[in-house]
Amino acid sequence: MLGRTSHAAFLVALFLTSLGMGVVESSIHLDETPTQQHSEGVSSVVDVPNWRIGDEWVYETQFDVAQLIAQANISASLNTLTGDTVYEVEDIFFITVDGIQTLAYKMKIEGAFTSGNNGATLDVPNFGQVSGRLNIDYSGEDIIRVRDLAVINSEFSLDVKFRPLNLGIFETDLALITFDTYYNPPKEKYDFPVRTGDRWYMPFMSGTSVDGSSDYFDPSEFDTNGAENTSWQVTADGIPTEDGLNIKYGGCDDSYKINEWNATGVSAGFNWYCPEVRFNSWIRISNAAGFTIDWLLKTYTPVDSNNVNPSSSPGGRNTQIHVSTATTATLPNAIEQISIDYNVAGSPSIPIKNTNLQLRYEIADTIANPTTDNNGQAQVALNVSDEADDTIASDDYTSNGVVVYDPVGRVIGATTVVQDLSVVGVDLVAQSSSVIVERTRNGSTTTLSASIGYNALPGDVLSFSLPAQNRGVLTAPSTFMEIETPEGIVTRGALPTIAPYAEERLEVEWSVPVDMAIGTANLSFTVDPDENVTADANRSNNAASLSIFIGRAPTVDLQVDEGKYTFENVTLNATESFDLDGGDVDCRFEIESRAGLIDVIEAPDCWTQWNWSNSGTWSVTVLVIDEELDTDELQVDVTIINQAPKFEITYPESVAVESPVTIEVFNMSDIDTVAPVGQIVKVYWPEWTDCGIINDSPTTVKTCTFTPTEEGMISVTAEGRDDDGEATTMTAEILVLNIPPTISAPSLLKGGQEVMPDENGTWHLNEDEVALLR
User: Fold this and answer.
1) How far is CA 64 from the centre of its chain?
2) Which of 458, 447, 434, 445 is nearest to 549 (CA)?
């Protein structure tokens, strides 16, 4: 079973890389002053950070892979793997991306993760089912584009080992594997500047090549390559909190939660971006395959900094390049004035004079070489071009990074040039594409993705965070937002002044009526409904609506074969499952294949077959998923009949009476046994034979020998029983033959002693002697 053991560990490692009649009642929870959310504009920008060689982040790491191991049909149990992951900026260098020289960080990532002693139970040769310690050593590097933190390439190696009984002398190498993943174009997990509600998506190509060594599988079979389409949205801001847990790092109270979805709208996890530490305060990868991995920030240690507390404060950089734009936003092909200030921190700061710098506007392949003056300052008139980034976003036309680099001091400064197709003083926008929608169902809250549309079921509670944006370069005065529920209830909430390219939000809740018909419900909202803001340059975008499809959960139907034996295919047919609100359904079967082990089969056609290697009652659950990712499930028990054991016997057809006869047993087997050798099949004999029990052990004598005392046909029935108590009988029919009588020579006894005849065969007796002739 070592192959399965290695596969279990490898799966753990691999996935490091990777939802009317009568009166209709409803409610909308709108206070007279609805809950407000505030998002700063670029005047208080959450812009692209700058890193230095030696910057280090340490994350508490938790791998919850128990479900993954179970679903992989592996005889194993595994605690949550824990350990620390260290991220360190190792280098700043140039790399060519799509023919353009690009400044990049090399991020070294190392970690050691363990189940702890007795935290893993695996099936190991020479040990059987044994507890021990599973260890994974991780070593990798990410190549990250400086201007926007997009990932260009990610490579890492995994060394997976298992220690039976927690003893190093028994340590088994399961896999030493390297994964190399490219992204084209580089994957932008952030779209700077970051603000709550921003949504973006990007199509890209991605491929992973796998290399390394393992005695149990071919690493290259895990190679992948293909198109992807991922979407992100900033759905919350504040203290990173998930599932009642918090990070250990004492700062980062102003983090931004960025949710990620794949092309089908399934959550791939999230990260909380923390401007204070210039990186993430919490990263989570979740996967339907059955695993969740969390990285929670413990410490941040920036180099060239003062007043640093690694567990709570980054302090300030000693040497820094400040880069800023003259305008909040600009038109394509405009000239934007870039201001540079290079100094050493102090009171007052000390300018770094007469220093040659490099300004890089890589999206347009523009390079400038400003030199700081006596004040440590420089100006560059930059043609922003009309080149757009690879992320389609809700808040601008494009946002392109500008990098200023000191190649000698290896110091970086950066900012983002925001472009819009219309730059005006004030433009209030009801931005439907930046609405944040959360759905609470059965006590569980999910953030919905716009990629597949918003949907709900009767009884759900929907929470909407509605944005009022100012897409202008001047501050917009205070006004109101008017909200109309799907039932036509109109409510207003006050909006404060809104900074340039910033937003304010109102939060509302709507409970979907339990008897609401199938169809589309619309929630609409209008910014400045009375048109009090006379400076608003474009009133055509002041109103927006949001469509929510109110459907029904799919209905599951499962038909299962009955009366099947072990190793016979059982048909699991859920093709009659349907979705009342229309559309197709997919199915996922979760099959209890062995005690405590679940096999998961994705079946888009809702049909599959399975066979069991052991008899008994086994659980089968089918999960039906409709196009809105609503689900229904059904669990049934499937009874599998045990197959009887098999054995053969050989014996003579006949034997003389009072002569020993031997019956030999061979080819003992039980196809569905789970017993060890020696207990698979046992053969029992009739009591009168005085033969002992025969088992399947190769060292056991497999014969029964007895002596018949009567002539005629005799039947000897051997009964073979398996570990499930099932019996098979074999009968030997043996003819016991008569033997002819025999006459022996007479003998003469006198006084109990035999009298010996003479040479002529004559006995000699005296007169009156008494003798016995026989």
Assistant:
1) 9
2) 458
What are the tokens at 353?
């004079």
Q: Which domain holds residue 713?
A: 646-737
CA–CA separation, 478 and 504 (whole Å): 10
Residue 32 has phi, psi (to 5 degrees) of -60, -30
pLDDT in tens, 15-70: 443 322 222 222 333 333 344 444 443 334 699 999 999 999 999 998 876 555 55
| 634 and 719 inside one domain | no
pTM: 0.76
Say how many domains are in the chain.
Answer: 5
**DSSP letter string, 13-75:** HHGGG----SPPP-EEE--SS-EEEEE--GGG--------TT-EEEEEEEEE-HHHHHHBT-S
Query: Are 537 and 426 within 8 A, CB to CB?
Result: yes
CATH of the domain at 411: 2.60.40.10
**H helix or E strand, kind and range, residue 2:** helix 2-14
DSSP 8-state code for residue 449: P
pLDDT in tens, 361-400: 999 999 999 999 999 999 999 999 999 999 988 778 899 9
Report the side by side order of strands in the sheet with 398-406: 366-368, 358-361, 398-406, 411-419
Q: Does 582 lie in the same domain as 537?
A: no
Percentage of the residues of the chain whose pLDDT score is greater than 70: 90
Beta-strand pair 461-470/428-430: antiparallel
Among residues 92, 42, 105, 39, the alpha carbon closest in space to that of 324 is found at 42
The token pair that represents 501 in the structure block: 């390219």
Burial grade of 242 (CB within 10 A; 0-12, 13-18, 19 or more): middle
The pLDDT value given to residue 168: 82
629 to each of 19, 452, 552, how far by Cα in Å? 4, 9, 11
> Peptide bond preceding 407: is omega within 30 degrees of 0, i.e. cis?
no
SS3 452: helix
In angstroms, how far is CA 307 from the centroid of its own chain? 39
* Start-end of H helices in 64-158: 66-71
Strand partners, 395: none
Residue 533, both tokens: 């803001």
